[in-house]
TrEMBL record:
Superkingdom: Bacteria
Protein's name in the database: DUF4051 domain-containing protein
Keyword terms: Membrane, Transmembrane, Transmembrane helix
Species whose genome carries this gene: Citrobacter enshiensis
Positions of transmembrane segments: 6-22
């Protein structure tokens, strides 16, 4: 069976568009994940310092 050239072009455009969208989405997800991880680590460091100061005062 013959597939018209415009269907092939349409499929290629959809695949390329999906690839570019996922690449950008994954990069944004990675940046969000890194920001959340950094905030969590900062919070744990601050909490650890507070408990250390309280232990030192006792």
């Amino acid at each position: 069976m013959f597939i018209a050239w415009y269907w092939i072009v349409l499929i290629v455009l959809v695949v390329v568009g999906y690839f570019c969208h996922m690449k950008r989405y994954c990069r944004a997800f990675r940046q969000d994940r890194d920001a959340l991880l950094e905030a969590r680590n900062k919070l744990f460091r601050r909490t650890g310092e507070d408990s250390r100061v309280a232990r030192d005062q006792e």
